[in-house]
Amino acid sequence: MASSQFAMAVHVLAMLANNCDERIKSGYLAESVNTNAVVIRRLLCDLHEAGLVVSQTGYSGGTCLTQAPSEIRLDEVFEAVVKTEVFGLHPNKPNPECDIGSNIVPVLGRIQDEVNLNVRQTLSGYSLQDVIDEVIQIGKTKKKKELVK
Predict the structure, then answer these.
(1) Residue 86 and residue 78: Cα distance in Å, rounded?
(2) Which residues make Cβ contacts (< 8 Å) with residue 148, sequence separation at least 6?
(3) What is the pLDDT of residues 64-110, one digit of tens each?
(4) Integer Rg of the chain from CA
(5) Is the sign of the CA dihedral 60, 64, 78, 137 positive or negative?
(6) 147 pLDDT above the threshold of 80
(7) CA distances from 6 to 22, 67, 74, 140 (A)
């Protein structure tokens, strides 16, 4: 199963950008993502380590962005929260006596490197602001459709 860490991280960052004037509590973010606040706090730790958010604990605490959404590239978010390759290689060493097994790992490793590079290059072409702008546009389109009904 694919990891949802990246999707949740972008969601959380968009929520923080949408409420840029105040610190947002993990419980509020968790409600929007529809997950447990502990999951969000772990995610926020990774985003904090990457320098994308700053958090304050306590009653008046919460989290906010460290920079403008237009400055946060999606490849930075990906690097912060996805701790694995896009796809994994063999968990056990293939049979060295097999013609395929003895040679498959370097081939798949090269493909894995290429896929990882392409994912990161694609994501680097988008900012958090791009995501927010599209979300807002979709919301406006939905509202117009509802008014027409």
Answers:
(1) 11
(2) none
(3) 999 999 999 999 999 999 988 888 888 889 999 999 999 999 999 99
(4) 20
(5) positive
(6) no
(7) 23, 19, 9, 25
3-state DSSP call for residue 19?
Answer: coil
pLDDT in tens, 98-143: 999 999 999 999 999 999 999 999 999 999 999 999 999 998 887 7
Which domains occur in the chain, in start order?
5-148 (1.10.10.10)
Residue with tokens 């049979």: 95
Q: What does the pLDDT read at residue 135?
A: 95
Do residues 55 and 42 lie in contact, with contact meaning Cβ atoms separated by under 8 Å?
A: no
- Taking the C-alpha atoms of residue 78 and residue 83, their distance in angstroms, rounded to an integer, is 9
CB 56 within 8 A of CB 37: no
Query: 3-class SS at 58?
Result: coil
The CA distance from 3 to 5, in Å, is 6
